[in-house]
Amino acid sequence: MGGRDATMVLLDENGIRCDGRKIDEPRRIMIKAGGLKNADGSAYIEFGNNKILVGVFGPRDVHPKHMSNTDTGILRVRYHMEPFSVDERKRPAPSRREIEISKVIKEALEPAVMLEKFPRTAVDVFIEVLQADGGTRCAALTAASVALADAGIPMRDMVAAIAAGKVADTIILDVNNEEDQAGQADMPVGYMPSLEKITLLQLDGVLTPEEYKKCVDVGVQGCKVVYELQKKALTDKYFGKGGD
Ligand code: UDP
Fold it and tell me: In terms of pTM, does the model score above 0.90?
């Protein structure tokens, strides 16, 4: 953030970004529901060069028992990045960043999941980032929603996520790693399209009030595109091709 690489052209004179996209164009997104035999629900997502696998387990007994809640179920999320998922090997020990992202994904999913139907139990969401290229929290949140639905967990809606941002004084959709590193702002947005509710909103960088509003709008519109692909992944598995 903040122009670390001043020589990189993030937006050329024709309005084309460093990876060839237009300002409002998301990266290629592929979502597959299911795939993990031993999980209750699972999903795999490719979001540009991000590759992420999610396994969901539960509702199941909570150990240790004192962590359970007699009134409601609990959601536990672990976001984990493989050491080989980034250019410079990541140390295997859980980083502060992984702990933070686990927390924000959990809090972004909680409004969607009907945990009150499963008192004393836990639903565990394991996120494995196999390859990272900027925007892993959004891609992971998107895949986690599909994996929860695949597990048959009752939900109010799915959370779709994508980042908006700012490069070369221009608001863009779907921030890649270079744009995150050298751009002016990165705003991950998680949104439940049917309920019209935002469940994740973070901002790294500086925006004017007008830019802030535009970023939220662009992010929400992007989430609606992602949502269609989430639904397609589930219909492909349960009603069409891709079942397993
Ligand atoms: N990254 C990295 N090494 C790390 C952590 C992150 O190279 O130890 C890269 C990775 O490509 C990631 C990007 O930095 O996607 C941006 O990370 P950020 O913390 O902004 O989260 P994200 O955008 O992935 O949600």
Answer: yes
